[in-house]
Amino acid sequence: MDQEEKIVVLDHWPSTFGVRVHMALAEKGLTEYETKDEDLFEKSSLLLEMNPVHKKVPVFVHNGVPICESLVILQYIDEVWSHAPSLLPSDPYERSRARFWADFVDKKIHTSAAKIWMCKGEELEQGKKEHVENWKILERELGEKEYFGGERLGFVDIALLPYTSWFYLQLIMGNIDMNSECPKIAAWVQRCKLKDSVARNLSDPVKVYDYMLLIKKRYGLD
User: Where are the alpha helices (DSSP H) in the chain?
Assistant: First the structure.
């Protein structure tokens, strides 16, 4: 990295959104940067200063200037370090499709996944059905491709991969076995894990599960 470049990532380790940023940086070959792990129950003055609107992580601080919202950050990284392998396709139509599916992940996968650890009874059962169907939709989009963008890991893969760290939680709390429900997705996960940028940055599934148990207890959801 150029000596004039300074990158700080404000993050919290279980954050699926934060994992995206670290994967994107790794794909671009950017390894020399600082990470500040935030306590989201006692937010730092730096986080409140850098993201005064949403007050959430991740925040990507590049030479003192903050960029917020993970998908926006991924696109920023892709544009600023354009000399490295691109995360988004060069074709405008394919680029729009990548953005569409990344948006689907945020609006559908994130929402239905949260229901598995937040809800009980009938609401939980409905959430489980929604969640499996959302993954099946993504599995159909993946089809026979190596990655969502084709032959190379890209924007949609990075948007989605952090949620695979929730598979253990889904199995224990929702009895959802992704190996049997979505075998092509399960195979895609294994392919992706062969990449150093993925393997080094995915959150440990058991630690994610333990963390969610603490959150459930904190909010009286257990």
Answer: 16-27, 45-50, 70-80, 92-104, 110-118, 121-142, 155-160, 167-174, 178-181, 183-193, 196-199, 205-218
Rounded to 5 degrees, φ, ψ at 73 are -65, -45
β-strands 7-11, 34-37 pairing: parallel
- Looking at the structure, tell me whether residues 76 and 139 fall in a common domain: no
* Tens-place pLDDT, residues 2-26: 546 899 999 999 999 999 999 999 9
The residue segments making up the domain with residue 120 are 92-218
Beta bridge partners of 11: 37
Query: What's the token pair of residue 140?
Result: 């159909």
- Phi, psi of 40, rounded to the nearest 5 degrees: -75, -10
Q: Token pair for residue 64?
A: 């003192």
Give the total number of structural domains in the chain: 2
Last residue of a domain, one of 33, 56, 80: 80
Q: How far apart are CA 74 and CA 80, in angstroms?
A: 10
CB atoms within 10 A of CB 157: 26
Is 13 a member of any domain? yes
Reported as a single tens digit per residue, the pLDDT across 100-144 is 999 999 999 999 999 998 999 999 999 999 999 999 999 999 999
What single letter denotes the amino acid at residue 29? G
> Residue 42: exposed, middle, or buried by beta-carbon count in 10 A (0-12, 13-18, 19+)?
exposed
pLDDT tens digits for range 75-90: 999 999 998 889 999 9
Residues 181 and 133 grouped into a single domain: yes
